[in-house]
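Journal club prep — side note

Before the paper discussion, L.F. wants everyone to see what a predicted structure for a comparable chain looks like in token form. Sequence:
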Amino acid sequence: MIVPVERATEHSRPLLLVMFLAFAAACGEEEPSAEEQREPEHFTSRSELVASVSGLETPESVRYDPVADAYFVSNIVGGPGTRDGVGFISVVGADGTVRELRFIDGGKKGATLNAPKGMAISGDTLWVADIDVLRAFHRTTGAPLTTVDLVPHGAVFLNDVVVGADGAKYVTDTGLRFDAAGAMSHVGPDRIFRIDGTLVTVAAEGDALGAPNGIAAVPSGGFVLAPNGIPTLQRWAGPAGGSPEVLAEGPGSYDGVEVLADGRLLVSSWADSTVHEVIESEMRPLIRGVNSPADIGVDTRRGNVAIPLFLENRMEIWSIPPVPAGDEAGDLPKSAESAVPAAH
């Protein structure tokens, strides 16, 4: 369904707002004030709103499927750390039309989904991070394929997943824990897991990861990391590359990150309700006023970005404008590959 842009009513989201405030407190951030969230008068977005999709339930992550020309959208429904079996995955067309709201539905047709978050596509497999396990479903039928249990490896709060240039799956663990009352704390350890077939290893661990949330891979090897707990967007060469390095500084409380074909990066931030673009080492606001922007996804055919609005049960699709005038191609990373050093 496509609807005009509208904001959720206050009575429809108090529980999620409490969760967000706890999440921000756990990572050392405060919710932005209404004044901070308003678009500055001098700011003019180069992006245009393409569509607004309603009817979702706590949408957390979006992954574009170029074969189906559609977005997969993960819906948490309950608490982000609650094993309630009510999560689901939606399929939304590139134009914003909901093709199937509950394409993969927790508790039905053999599917288990508790609080699905980040997703990745590899061939005909859709991988989904779900609290402390990585689940695999058939990309076209939705049938469950396998589950990789990361509990024996110490998983706490799996958040995003990407397929690296080496074909392995890399999953961020933000290190959040919920108690029986729903209160949340950042207990760590901050980690990135690597899954190669049935082999699970810890590819990176430590406070330097800053409560890792979003992760994006580049074709030649290496990754871009979007931490939630620090204001630094990072580049990481991979398991053999040591600690992550500073790529750009910004408002923090990052969620999703994407590498564009022209070398730019897009990253969503809860701190200022904005999707930013990163050119070289400079982070600039691109789309403002998107409340609780979670894990974004890019339509590589049309050059659009889909933004799940976690607290509003909606998703917005915006155009991705060309490189701004005055930024010569030579000022950008020559390609997405050069944005991140190759793994050794």
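L.F.'s comment for the group: Residues 10-33+49-322+331-339 form a domain with the Neuraminidase fold (CATH 2.120.10.30). Keep this in mind when we get to the figures.
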